[in-house]
Amino acid sequence: MTADALPSRSVQLAPSILSCDFARLGEELQAIGSADWAHVDVMDGAFVPNISFGLPILSAARRASPLFMDVHLMIESPERYLKAFADAGADGLTVHVESTKHIHRAVQQIRELGKKAGVTLNPGTPLDAVKPVLADVDLVLIMSVNPGFGGQKFIPESLERVRTVRRWLDELGSAAVLQVDGGVTPANARAVADAGATCLVAGSAVYGPDGAQAGLRRLREALAVGEET
Ligand code: DX5
Ligand code: ZN
Questions:
Q1: Quick check: is 7 in a domain?
Q2: Are 47 and 96 in contact (CB under 8 A)?
Q3: What does pTM read for this prediction?
């Protein structure tokens, strides 16, 4: 899917390029060309213990692929960099409630930049923290691992958090994307979708030893189970 529109299928896949081979970034993006979004994990070594990459990699990814660039900012005070990431090619920008004193302002700034605004929170943060901006966002991301690293194990309690936010969005009549990120695999993808998620991020489950196309296919097959009923 290109940057023109938000995806419309019931459950979208957003492979995280964090797990790709950066020496072959262009090819790795080509390999996920059939996915809905590219998920771009930016880490600053302060908000999370790890440093991933920043603006130059996003801009290279933007040049290499027409996919919707779904940028997950794991950085302190993200409002300092929203415009820079928008200029570098982000289509959507997701900010953590824990990373800013002004989550409402950050969401407004993303919208003023003409980008899709997302809000997220760590697994240990009470869900209520997203409520004040729920009606203003295009995406809510439930983190199902502690942010910072790919390849971690899905936290099972996340399913209940997805169900709760699904209910809140439905009560609001919101069409916001409900995204889940961390430890998503073919073994749990169907359960995550059944809990109400509409977009699944997957890093290590996509960029595995047999390549991203095979990884994507396995996730799609897992999601298809039970769809006919
Ligand atoms: C974790 C990142 C995730 C990560 C997911 O901090 O936000 O997007 O890349 O990787 P997997 O799917 O391997 O858990
Ligand atoms: Zn992420």
A1: no
A2: yes
A3: 0.95
